[in-house]
Design a protein that fits this description.
Hypothetical Protein Pfu-838710-001; single chain; alpha+beta
Length: 147
Amino acid sequence: MEVEVKLRLPDAITHRHVTTVLTPFHVTTHRQENNFFDGSSNKLSSHQAILRLRFTDTNPCCIVTLKAKAVIVDGVSRVEEDEEVLDTAISRECLAEPANPRPTTTSRSANPSPRDMENRGERGEQRRKMKRRERKKNRLKKKKNLK
């Protein structure tokens, strides 16, 4: 379960104001490339779900994410989320030809390594949670050091 706070800003002036207020707390900028998928009949969005491929400047792999059953209460979103690591080359192939994905023998899912197997399931989830907590703790330390 992930909790996100969504801010919907009414206009560019409000955006500039929020940016001005938050700028002193800015630590670093991460670049992301997000690609969202749905069928022509919008089956995913009609079930309030999203499928995303994310490439970042901090991770050499691609993360595929499926989010579903989001509930927003007072601006706080709670959503079921499932993430898997994909080989970047295979992910780029899927983007190049989304309607015609080709099976690839180098796919991690076809030939998982022992490490890939460790990263799946409960142990992998625990490891991902620890990494998230670690990143959050580091961000808080950096903010504290800036004051």
